[in-house]
Amino acid sequence: EKAVNLKKDLAEMQEWMAQAEEEYLEKDFEYKSPEELENAVEEMKRAKEDVLQKEVRVKILKDNIKMLATKVPSSGQDLATELNVVLENYQLLCNRIRGKCHTLEEVWSCWIELLQYLDLETAWLNNLEERVQMTGNLPDKLDAVNDALESLESVLRHPADNRTQIRELGQTLIDGGILDDIISEKLEAFNARYEELSHLAVSRQITLEQQLQTMRETDHMLQVLQESLGDLDRQLTSYLTDRIDAFQMPQEAQ
């Protein structure tokens, strides 16, 4: 009777493993939304726990069959053969579910990391847009233009590492057919805004550089003229002091 019960337990275990394999490993999943992906991750975590909890039952079966084999070798031998099949299938099921759970967790981590990089770069774009707007109505002063140019250039020196990560993470998920529509839309919007703002910022940078150069040249010319007028003023003052007649002065002084 004990052999019959153990045989029944082995059969039930095989049936349970077949159902678990069909439910967790053979279904085709399409992750078109973050909610679907997150639910799949949680489901696989539960599946992993469920499968691992059966380890106690498998161990009890193994111990009971070994004990029966010592008492009734003929029955125990037949059951031991079936047990080996169950043990192999169980180990394979555990490994496959662990693997799929790990893969889904990595995919979810990849998605979260992508969102974090997008948030960082969006914050940088917002800052860049603000700096560009600040250069729109500058007072016609050398210091103001110089400060605006340095401020804009400091933002433009932002490294490209984050954008590289965004591109690679996004492409990895899209290639796997995971959240591809959502990610493609996000990347398209981000890239379009990045290109637009980058070109506008570089154009404004060039304009400010040219404006700054013109203002410096003008300041230099005014300084030279002011020095020349100062010299002339001192010369004329000396002429007046010495009571020199205008017609006795050099032509330029007249």
UniProtKB/TrEMBL annotation:
Keywords assigned: Coiled coil
Domain of life of the source: Eukaryota
Signal peptide (UniProt feature, chain positions): none
InterPro entries assigned to the protein according to its UniProt record, in alphabetical order: Spectrin/alpha-actinin, Spectrin_repeat
Key word Disulfide bond present: no
Residues in coiled coil: 3-64
A family per Pfam: Spectrin
Protein name from the UniProt record: UTRO protein
Species of provenance: Dryoscopus gambensis
